[in-house]
Structures are given as C-alpha cells and as structure tokens.
Amino acid sequence: MRRRWEPPPHIRLALARGGAKGRGPGRPLPATLRTMPVIVIIPLAEIEADAVERLLDRAFGPDRHRRTAYRIREGTSAVPALSFAAVEDGALIGTIQCWPVRLARDDGGSDPLVMVGPIAVEPARQGEGVGQRLTRHAIRAAEESGAPPLMLIGDPEYYGRFFGFDARATALWRAPGPVEQRRLLARGTAPEGAGMLAPRIPALT
Prior knowledge:
By secondary structure, the protein is α+β, with helices and mostly antiparallel strands. It folds into 2 domains: 1-36, no CATH class; 38-199, Gcn5-related N-acetyltransferase (GNAT) (Aminopeptidase, 3-Layer(aba) Sandwich), CATH 3.40.630. It is 26% helix and 25% strand. It has 6 helices and 8 strands. Strands 1, 2, 3, 4, 5, 6, 7 and 8 form an 8-stranded mixed beta sheet that branches. A hairpin with a 2-residue loop joins strand 2 (84-88) and strand 3 (91-105). The radius of gyration is 19 Å and the shape is globular. The chain starts with 8 loop residues before the first helix and ends in a 6-residue tail after the last strand.
C-alpha cells in the first residue's frame, strides 16, 4: 500500500515562512494562513487505483462506464505522463486522465490523438477551480512532451473559452456511440478528415 502523501519540504517551508510580497525573509505568516491546506498536482500513478475509481464514481455516478467516451478508449491505458491528481492535505480531491486514441480515417489512414478526460473533482470541491488547474497542467505537459493533438467530449463554450478547444476540425468525425457533434472538440493541429474515433492500441496502430 502506498504511504500517505505528504507535501515536499519546499512547500512546507513556504507555509512556514512569509512568501507574500512585502514580508521580510523568515517573517511568519498569520497562524490561519500557516494552517491552510495546499493543493498540489502530482502524477496520477502515485495514487491508488481504487481511490481514483471511487472518486470517479462520486463525481460521475456508477453508470459512467456506459458513456461513449469509454468506448472510444476501450482497451487502452491512461498515458502516465499526461495523467495527474490534485491532492490537498493528503486527500485526493481531483484527477485528470488522458488516453491514446486515434481517428481511423475513411480513406484507410490513421491519425494519433490524445483524449482528455475524465476530469473528476470531489463533489464538495467542485466550482473551486480544481478541474481547471488539472486541465491546464495536462495541456502544458502535452505541449512540452510533443504529444499528438488533444481531443475531448465536452461543452464547447467552456473548453473553448478557457482551454482553446473547438470543433473546427471535428465536423466529419464519428464516435462509436451517441454524442452531440458540437461537443466533439479538438485542440492543436487535429486532422480534419472523415473517420471514426477509436482506441490507439500499439499492436494495431
């Protein structure tokens, strides 16, 4: 069993010392601020798989496996370098997972993609920006690693405004299940051809 997550030394030091502008070196923060929990983003691989599944059930319900997104990525594993957890005072409060998928084009070609989501946040902590922090972190990691273009199923107004996703390239994409076409979104140089979204399994692609 993995041990309880503890903040690294530099974060504990930041809580104990005056980090705000105008505070002298070593001058302590007020007691109320010193005891405030810190949200830290860590690799999802450091979290027990059962804890991740329980959070997903609380966030989306036990019938979440029926969603089309699960069929698109069926048989794959989340990309470790692009999947993260938000932890506060040792407690898991949010996760984001990214998956290797592809556009199986009607002309016989295949374009690699990374599917973003689910983005799960503890119900009591929703609306506090935890999901946005996780999403930005994953996008930055994808950009820095040179990952394939990102795609997701989600609200175009929200993901367009905050993260630059849109449906310009996805008009001819299809999914192996029901989905609103306007909710098929992509970011970056995504392929624009007609095709079916499918898992990207190394033995096949």
